[in-house]
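Subject: mismatched residue count in predicted assembly?

I count 552 residues in my input, but I want to confirm that the predicted structure covers every chain. Input:
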Amino acid sequence: MMGTFDQLLERSTRSLAQRTSRRSLLASLGQLLTGAALLPLLPVDRASRAHAAAAKADSPESCEYWKYCAIDGFLCSCCGGTSSSCPPGTASSPISWVGTCHNSADGRDYIVSYNDCCGKSTCANCDCNRNEREKPIYRPSRNNDLNWCMANADVNYHCTVSVILGVAEK
Amino acid sequence: MRSAHLLCAALSWPLLAAHALAAPPLPPEHLTIERLPPPSRHWVYVYDEVFDNEIDARVYLYDGDSHRRLGQISAGFYTSVSLSPDGATTAVAATYFARGSHGARTDVVEFTDNTTLTVTHEIVVPGKRAEAGPSLFNLAYSVDGHFLYAAYMTPAASFGVLDPAAGTVLGEIDTAGCVLVIPSGRYRVSSLCESGRLLTVTLDAQGRELARTMSDPFFNADIDPVFVQGIPTNRGYLFLSFLGEVHDIDFSAEQPAFAAAWSLLGPAEKGHWRPGAYQVGAIHKELGRLYVPMHEGGEGTHKDGGTEIWVYDLATHRRLARWPVKVQGLSRTIAVQVSQDPAPILFAATESGDLAVFDALTGRLRHIDKHAAQSPWMLLNP
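Triage response: the counts match. Full output below for your records.
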């Protein structure tokens, strides 16, 4: 199994390398590192959980939730997972599309990775389709119509999470 | 009260019994399988993605005159659909799992005879298909029907060249980051690039690459991307942009030729109205009429369906009509198609799954088939 996974990862990494210029790769890595450095400081998910009874837009089970600004699919929060974790028994996709979403709670824009959770048929709960800055398939890193389970061992699509990568540079 | 009812029933029973005895019995029935009537230009193939249960997509054949569903083609998971140029065959490219919802993946193109709706044969293809949103360019026949092109994405982009008659995969062409298969000429395939250019690959009669060229950019993906749902014209395809620019591209020569872009919007409408849908336009080729679902909205609303359908004359770029769909009791229009005959009908699929049939000349609503599909994201006709 690990061999298969390694092969898949290698293939998707090679594919990414084939279609990504060095400059854009460095820019993306920079964004990622910025995000990684700030990750422990982010209060967002906990804040929303602490205010579960607050307005609907603060709930990760609501399509209005700020992190979902470019999601298209079923919210994993309604499928046994959370806004940033896949439901039990599924597999997370190693590749994803990204969005830039504004969190009105702290006034910052965040780069969000939308990963699919794979290996089971569609969750069919909390369908959410938002498309801020979403682009067609010729810009795949911003496209939410693709099946991002495409590089998984089992490509069946179940639901989608939104994982904060970091603060978006102005 | 109960006793009064019982009395009435007792009194009327002899009359009912006598009537039943007088009527001849129903004849025995013979189980048969319905045959399709001769093809009609008012048929439409409704691609239902079945988003709540994506492993079970399907294509419905619907008659716009009788307002009846005539039959169904099964279509698996993350499906691409293409009608052969002569309309005789529906090709469906889909993924299937060995255990229904999971297990080993098999990607296959299945060919259905459109006169019987039975599958005639199949081609097993590499597990690389672009599992993408609906478009005519995920899977497309060459103009003469000799080849079938299948867009691949792993996410590295390429396409497969298939021989539908022999049932074989002939090869794979790398498209270096450009996506989808836009067929033209004898054996040309164009792909849309992130840079706003068109890559055009020319093949030989065996499906091998002869040459490739790259066009100048015709759109800017950062400022105003084009929808990939190109609309067939007499000489190529028309691509609409998110902000309502019309890019008319002539694919009849060796290199694509770009007419000057024009706008769907007048000065008062710019910044307020825009096109949006899963299938964002349809053209009646002979009449030169373009039908576009339009809505009021801003950034991020490009997949919101139309609250109105706007009609344009392609020769003059003049808008001929605005047809509000909400007043007809319909939700937003997410896909449109028009029949190509002199008395055309316009099909409009809605976000709530209804299929509406309009007179394409006047906009008169003829019929609504409520809940015709779950996710009717694309409508096809020959």
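The radius of gyration of chain A is 16 Å. Marking this ticket as 'not a bug'.
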